[in-house]
Design goal:
Length: 243
């Protein structure tokens, strides 16, 4: 019965989703080209708000724990488990005060209204997972960017999404480069719960009546902590809080 109800709701949601991407693509272009970064950032915030709010049509609710632990005015490395694309919009909206920028796969850099434009112009980086040299160079540039601007880099160390919520092993390389070249940063582990349920039936229909949870854990100073300890603590902290 639930899946039957999900079909018409998903169709309406995708109509809203697609319309928002097209409209905000134009808004982003105007903001970026006429007014610069700050205006563009506000347009992306507005897009993320709309995308998060529109999931209420699917009965989706959100809970963010420990938002007060997210410091501002310092570079941040936000490491999170990855369950669906809804992780990205959730982090983008609820953590907007720290200007989150994403380490994203290169395939997202072309052909997707709003999303591709933001990834190419908003401070995020695109990595080719088949080309380790290009990937690490791009992540190095991201680290230098957040070090200079005191903004936040968001990375999903699992690499690919978990379709069942069960975490995959974390990869060290990206986190290691971020820590090396953003040495004054704080590592912020973030646990995401129940996002995978949005796509438990695939892309259509979407899951309905889910409660997505983001848990922000205590930041870890990069400068004062050996990387093996940072990596172990980050992975353990994130995965232990997954439902």
């Amino acid at each position: 019965m639930q899946k039957l109800v999900a079909y018409p709701l998903s169709a309406i949601y995708y109509l809203l989703f697609g319309s928002a991407l097209v409209v905000f693509h134009v808004i982003q272009w105007l903001c970026f080209n006429l007014f610069g970064y700050r205006a563009h950032k506000k347009s992306v915030d507005a897009l993320n708000f709309f995308l998060v709010a529109s999931t209420s049509l699917l009965g989706t609710r959100y809970k963010v724990r420990n938002l007060e632990k997210l410091p501002t005015g310092v570079p941040l490395i936000i490491a999170a488990n990855h369950q669906s694309l809804y992780d990205i919009t959730s982090i983008g909206w609820f953590m907007r005060k720290v200007h989150p920028k994403f380490v994203s796969k290169i395939e997202l850099g072309k052909g997707i209204p709003s999303i591709s434009y933001n990834l190419n112009h908003g401070g995020s980086v695109l990595i080719d997972r088949k080309d380790p040299k290009q990937s690490l160079t791009a992540i190095k540039e991201m680290a230098q960017y957040i070090e200079a601007t005191k903004r936040a880099a968001v990375i999903f160390p699992e690499g690919t999404r978990s379709k069942t919520g069960k975490p995959k092993s974390f990869a060290e390389s990206g986190l290691k480069v971020l820590c090396k070249y953003a040495s004054s940063a704080l590592m912020v582990p973030v646990t995401i719960n129940n996002s995978w349920k949005m796509t438990k039936w695939g892309s259509f229909p979407l899951g309905i009546g889910n409660k997505l949870e983001l848990i922000i854990h205590d930041p870890i100073p990069v400068k004062d902590t050996p990387f093996p300890q940072i990596f172990e603590k980050t992975e353990k902290t994130i995965t232990q809080a997954i439902n």
